[in-house]
Amino acid sequence: MTLIDLGETGRDEPGWEPPRRDLGQWRREILVVLIAIAALVLPQASVPATASAPPIVLEPLAGVVDDVQVVGDVALGVRSETLDVAAVSLETGALLWARPAVAVFPTDSAAGHVALISPAGVRTSRLEIVEARTGQLVETWPDALLVHAHGRWAVARSAVAEPVGERMVGVIDGLLLTVRGKPGDYSATFWRPDGERYVPLWTEPVSRPDHDFLSCGELICAIDSSGVRGLDAQTGRLVWAAGRFTVTDETDDLLIGRLSDGLGREQNAVLDPRTGSVMARLGAWHIAGTVAGRTAAYLPGSAGRAWLGTVDLTADHPVVRARANLTAAVDRCVAAGTRLVCFSGVAGQPPFSLILPPR
Description:
Helix content: under 10%
Strand order of the largest sheet: 12-11-13-14-15-16
Mean pLDDT: 80
Strand content: over 45%
Oligomer: single chain
């Protein structure tokens, strides 16, 4: 067993902050404004376009109940007022299609397929598998399981017989996860496939039936109020533990969350789920995901104080590099494919899509 020392986060160098304007900068900006006004009123004057591509407002996704799923150049989300899944083009912001559903999960991103779940839920109703771009029905599944691998939850067809007395929760890195018990006395069991049956590997007590387990490379990560633990997938043996790390997200086999020191001071950080070691301390920056082959980060803020950036997590000392100042408020962003989808955090406002600026 290895206990991971996460260090004193309060002693790190301060995180990057947006530059402050001094008096000289204000004077230069006023001069730029005067020149721009002159260019507008003088005959034959022109101003070259230097701004990057503007954001695409995804108006049909205003009021989504949760984050969006991005499949190729399509963003999909559940609209709270109409209880349907809307699919919107990231290139134009136009509505592509809408169908009644309370949740949407990827099934086969390479084929561009997603699963739409009806109000009855995954275990008691059939799922509709549709094309993300057209909404065309591909097939229906009478039953399905949640599957977690490579930092993503997805839906897969279920051909598993439920063990007697157990409730199937999902498949974690190829192992079936079930829960049994009653309030105050739950236990989770991992099962290994063996032909047409499953063989129990290990069981451990959990505080609730929906206890969080994730695939962490070759390990299983268990997440609870005390922190996160890396467990051997075949035996349940404790490999590492990080008691001062609170997981808030996970993507591309990374654990993203809040790292605290002994005084309770926190900052955002990235944990390597295979070893439990801290890969990067980010200060106030957040990881959005991978876009165009780069790890994208964002700094939340009001209009003019929000930023996009990138970070090389393979570097010896990863540092977030600011790439673009945003003229719209940003509360959170999701990156996938070639674009980011960002939310303002204001109820009823639609998200918008962005292109990450060049290197």
